[in-house]
Amino acid sequence: MDELVHVRTTTTAKYHFVRFSQEHQGLPVIQAHLLVKLDLLGSVVLFGIEVHDDIDLVLQPSIGSEEASGIASEGLLDVESVEVNGLRILPIPAEGRTDHRLVHELMVHTRKVGMVGHHRCWVDAHNGELLYRWNEVRSGCHGHAGGDNGAEVQVEGTIQVNGPLQPGEVHGMPNLRVTVNGDVLFTDDEGYLDTDVPGPVSAGFELRGLWSTVVTDNSTPSFITSLAEGPNTISFDAASTLRQRTAYFAVDRMHAHMKTIIPDPIGLDIALTTRVDVTGGNCNANYDYLDTSINFFAEGNGCRSFALLPDVVYHEYGHGINDKFYQSIGGSFLNAAMHEGYADLWSMSLTLDPVIAQGYLIGDDGSYFRRYDQNPKVYPLDLVGQMHADGEIIGGAWWDTHVLLGNNMVLMMQLFAEAYPGLQAAAFNGQEGQAFRDVLIDALQADDDDSDITNGTPNGAAIVEGFARHGITLLSNAQIQHTPLEAAVQDEPMTITAAVNVFFPDDQYLGSVRLFHRVNNATDWTSEAMMPVAGGVYTAALSAQTAGTLVSYFLAVEDVLGGLGAALPKGAERADPNVPFHILVGFELQATEDGDQVHELGEWTTGIAQDNATAGMWELAEPVPSHSGVNGTGVMVQPGSQHTPGGSMCWVTQNAPGPFTPMGAADVDGGSTTIESSIMDLSTFDTPTFSYWRWYVNNPPGGSNPGEDLWQVFISNDAGSTWVPVEETSISDRSWRRVTFRVEDVIDVTATMRLRFVASDSVVPGANQAGASLVEAALDDIQLWEASSSTVGLSEQYMSPIASLYPDPANDVLNVVLTDDDALVLYMEVLDVSGRMMTRTPVVHIGGNRHRIDVQGLAAGQYILRLVQDRGHAHQRFNVMR
Question: How far apart are CA 34 and CA 4, in angstroms?
Answer without folding.
Answer: 8
